[in-house]
Amino acid sequence: MPDPSPHPVTRQDVFAVVRSRILVTLPHLDEANISLSANLRDLGADSLDRIDIVTAAQAELGICLNAEEFTGVANLAGLVEALYAHGRRP
Q1: Is 1 part of any domain?
Q2: Structural domain boundaries enclosing 57
Q3: Is residue 5 part of a domain?
Q4: What is the CATH number of the domain that holds 61?
Q5: Span 83-88, mean pLDDT?
Q6: pLDDT tens digits, one per residue of 31-52
């Protein structure tokens, strides 16, 4: 009998969601430019784009973070870690 519980989300899963949200918001962007060391501003995202990307990623992952939880996030690795850590909370 298959396990009915959902599989845990990995950091790679979170990065895939973030990457897909970036590509939806910035369709002109070459996917090869999206790496964990990149930041949204350098990828061409303005402040509204960044809000859209983060909000859509949270919605897709089924989590909601306060803006304060993104303090100090400098790149996509930091964003992924913030989303991943929040998603693992009980």
Answers
A1: no
A2: 11-87
A3: no
A4: 1.10.1200.10
A5: 82
A6: 999 999 999 999 999 999 999 9
What whole-number distance in Å separates Cα of residue 77 and Cα of residue 81?
6
Mean pLDDT of 62-82: 92
Cβ contacts of residue 7 below 8 Å, gap of 6+? none
Q: How many Å apart are CA 71 and CA 73, to the nearest integer? A: 6
**Six-digit token string for 19:** 């990457």
Q: Which amino acid is at 73?
A: V
Q: Can you give the pLDDT at residue 49?
A: 96
Is residue 36 included in any domain, yes or no?
A: yes
Look at residue 39 and tell me if it is in a domain: yes
Is the pLDDT reported for residue 86 higher than 90? no
- Pairwise CA distance, residues 40 & 18, whole Å: 11
CA terminus-to-terminus distance, the chain: 26
